[in-house]
Amino acid sequence: MIVTLTANPSLDRTVALNGTLARGAVLRTTGTTVDPGGKGINVARVLRRAGLDVLAVLPADHGDPLLTALDERALPYVAVATSGPARNNITIAEPDGTTTKLNEPGHTCTGRTLGELHTAVLNAACGATWAVLCGSLPPGIPDTWYADLVTAMRSLGCRVAVDTSEAPLLALAEQLPTSAPDLIKPNSDELAQLTGADATALEAGAAAGDLGPVIDAGQVLVQRGVGAVLATLGAAGAVLVTSEGAWHASTTSATVRSTVGAGDSSLAGYLVAEQAGELPGECLRHAVAYGSAAVALPGTELPGPESVDPSAVRITEFQDRPEPPAHVLPSHP
Questions:
Q1: Which residues does the UniProt record annotate as the domain Carbohydrate kinase PfkB (predicted)?
Q2: Does the pLDDT value for residue 327 go beyond 50?
């Protein structure tokens, strides 16, 4: 069982345009889709499609359209009563793959809801293999909550993955190593926030094939207690850093239809392989394969195993410091 926590869930409405978005213009749409959203829910949906047992924990009232959407997709969940309906997020998708997102902040989480949500996720995590804490926090939840949850879960026997940003991410970093998760999934900006590295240098280096700064930043987090750092780098692929070494994954460029949910799909792909007992390099291979499959899909559509091709992902393993790459793992047949 993998448990996911989505503290700030949403209904994600994607509006597809037949041309370029222009401020102040009247635009024609080619279609609209509505999906249950929030990073933890996205991860759970991908894992469920891959055949894994999942349980999504979230705040939502009985009768909320979000829960109806989860029921329609047969996604198991535990919902804690809260102060209002799930927020609505809007994604505007252009034909060239450019996406513009309008995200509501979410309703304020009361002290009662926070207490019940805290209890619900800890209860669900007992006996689980992984607890995945994802996304932004709504008003009313302190920035330190993810850090507090990671600390509380240390005695439960499950491993913990975290994918968040901004203030909750910085609060997690401030409490390392006490709050160190088993897996963290930053993008280049978030990796810079966590380590004090220069985000521009990380992005420019990765785009030019110099992965040293990314690996160095990942090693900083591993030295501070984080089990594994899965750094997603957009078109430059992804890097995995653990105490055992570092790996880079790259793939041929896919036609980008939407980047929404790509990072969530990457995290899910990593967990799919990890649950199957794969080694770190293969876990990274699946992470990038799932992320690549996600960007080729429209709107907030998420990939299933039938659209994922791990054999298209090339893995390079670095023995110590990437000067030069020491070994390239073979692709699956």
A1: 23-303
A2: no
